[in-house]
Each structure stands twice: as C-alpha cells, then as structure tokens.
Amino acid sequence: MFRAFSFAIGMTFSATAMSAELLPPDKDFLKQAAEFGITQENWDSGEFAAVTFPQAYRFTRHYEISAGDTVAPEEWRDETGALDLAALSARDADGVHDLRTILRDRLLNHSMVVLKGNRLLHQHFWDGMTPVSTHLDMSVTKSFTATLAGIAAAEGLLDMSKPVEHYLPEYEATAFGGVSVQDVADMNSGLDIPTPPFMSWDPKFTQSQEWNGPNDSGLTGINEYLLTLSERKYEPGTHYQYQDPNTELLGLITEKVTGIGLAAFMQERLWSKLGAEGDAYWMADPRGYTVASGGLNMRTRDLARIGRLFLNDGKNHLGEQVVPKAFLDAIWEGNDRVRAAWAVGKEAALASDGWYKDQIRILNIKGHTMMVFVGIHGQVLVMEKETGTVIAMNGGYPQTETVRMNTLLFLEVVPAILDATSGL
Question: Which CATH fold would you assign to the domain 27-71+123-422?
Fold first, then answer.
C-alpha cells in the first residue's frame, strides 16, 4: 500500500495530482543534523554529500513507495570474489591506479553492485552504508520518470507525438508551446535557460520545489516555475540540451494522463513488480508533485535489479512484462533525430557515438555499447546487453557537471569493469 501520513501544513492539490498527503521532513533527523552544521538550506552541498546523500529524503517532503509483500527470491548466485577491484586498473591524471583507489579515493564512491546474468560478481558498501541503505540517485531519477511515461504510452494513455499543450493547455503560451512530448522526453525542446557554472538548472527551479526548504522566491511548486519559461534557443528536435525542466514537465504530463501521482504510478506499475528488497522514497515539492528530475532514493541492490529488468527486455523475475519491450528497443536502436541532436550537444565530446532518448543515454565507448542512467554526483546504472552486465553505483563526488568525473567514470572505470566481466 502506498503509505502517506498527515502533514501539518495545509496543502492543495490539482485535480490531476495524487489525492494523498505528504510525509514531512524528518524533524528529529533535522535537529540531529543541525548539531553538525547541516540544515535544509545546505544539505546538498558537496561538503556534506558523504552523510546526507544516504539520508536525503529526510530533508524534504517525500513519498514512501512500498516494495510490496513479495520480495524476489535471491536469484543472484553469490560470486562476489570474482571481480577484484584491487586487481583492475585505470588511469587518472597522475597515472595508473587500481579501481578501488580511483572509486573510493578519487570519485568518492559510496556503493557498487556488479551483476552478470544471475551472478553477483561484486558488491561493496563504503561510507558507512550497508546493503539496506538507501541513497539519493539524483538524475538517475530522470530515467525512471521517462520509463513511467513509456508505460503510460504503452497503455494508450499518452501519445508522445502530441504537443505539450494537448495535455496541459496552459503551456501553449510558454516556451513549451508546440513542442512534442517526445522532444521534451529527449531533451530536445530547445529551451533557453541561462544557468550558473556547474549547474544545469536555474536556481529558481529548485527554490520553487523547496529542495532546500522554504524560500522567498515567490514560486510555490514546480508548475509555477515551468509556466515562467518563455524563450527557446533552438528549433525543437534539433539540439540535445540537458535541462531539468524537461523532465519535470514530462512528470506533470504523466500525472495528468494517469490521473494519479507519479510516485503512486511507480509503485503500482514498477516498484511493486520489481521484487525490490526495500521501499523507495521520492522527494516532492510544496504542492505534492514529485521531483521528477532528481528526487528518487533507493537501495543500490534495487537499482541493480532495475538493470536486470531492463536487460531482460522489461520482464521481471516472474516473467511479467513490466517495462514495454518496444520502449526499450526504441532506446537501444535510437533514430536519426536523436543522433543528430546529440552530435551538437556538449556530451558528444565524451562519447561522439551516442544518443539520448527518453531520458536515457546510449554510449559506445571502447568497444562497449551501454545503456546508462546518470546522476551528477556519481550515481550510475550501466547495462551492457552483449555481456549481460549491470553496474549500479552511488557516490558523492562534490562538484557537479565536471569533465573529470565523467572522464574517470565512463572512459576509465566502466570500460575496465566491462572488460573484466566479459571474461568471467
């Protein structure tokens, strides 16, 4: 059952939002954190990532997404000694190091699970984490939001080719007017949003969500912020630009067509069918909308289960079709539109042969074709179909949007692990 409890502050929900109340920030935890200089205003600072990312949902309003009553049988054959990080190596600026050094000391990794088929080749939990610890997944959340939209589309509730205003008429006069839902999902909407260095969002964006607690921005909820966007830089469908408002709008559209909140839809259609080992938590704004672009918290082992689900053509451990196969096939295959848009985006410098479709990347690097969910502090889910390998990791790299982190992860660490698993 989707669990929600009364919230002391009165809230209103639109007719299309989930008719449920929110769990408030954890007051006892906030009081404890304040003793160490951590508050709602600064909890997501890189300085505090080691302690706050495994506890992130406690700082904000959030939904609890139940794993349900049935946990998948332990189908992973434990071979955790098969992949030895100390025996694998990769480069950093000062030379070659073993992967344990690069992950733990250079990338500030917190946890990692590596699967190959039904074999558990490796898992570690550093930074005080355990297998039952949740972790903020940041922009890995985007891929979940788009997957839920894909499920809604497969059920006939959503036509991705329709313009945004077909579902949300109030957006016709904004920068999203005339933009297809698919171009929003592919980050090809052409938005013109000036952003500060090391950020892919406008500060007013997070203020509207009260990501860092109450503020005086004058915006209450993500919908109010999105309605202020009025400029486009590019023709829709021509340029890949990584901008969080696209995901938030996709989440609002999915809520509109399903008639329930995104968190409830995820619980019903995905999380309760995954065989997850634990509940997930989805952070939310003052009006009850989920932070669709970055608010999911879950166990690293359960993130790895999502990878297995995707590599199993969307079928769970019971053989049920949870994620539409056609949705996954379209991402793996890409198309001329998303390839051309990627080629003129900044991430092409990292992987020229790639694309971004439905909030998910396909990267071709060092002989490996991988489907990738990415978070800005080192949260990663990598799936390689050829070897059946899944790499799920969480981290607390202190700076965002950096060439260094992405180079270490995707040009060095991930290929080294995939090379190793190909021989196991």
Answer: Beta-lactamase (3.40.710)
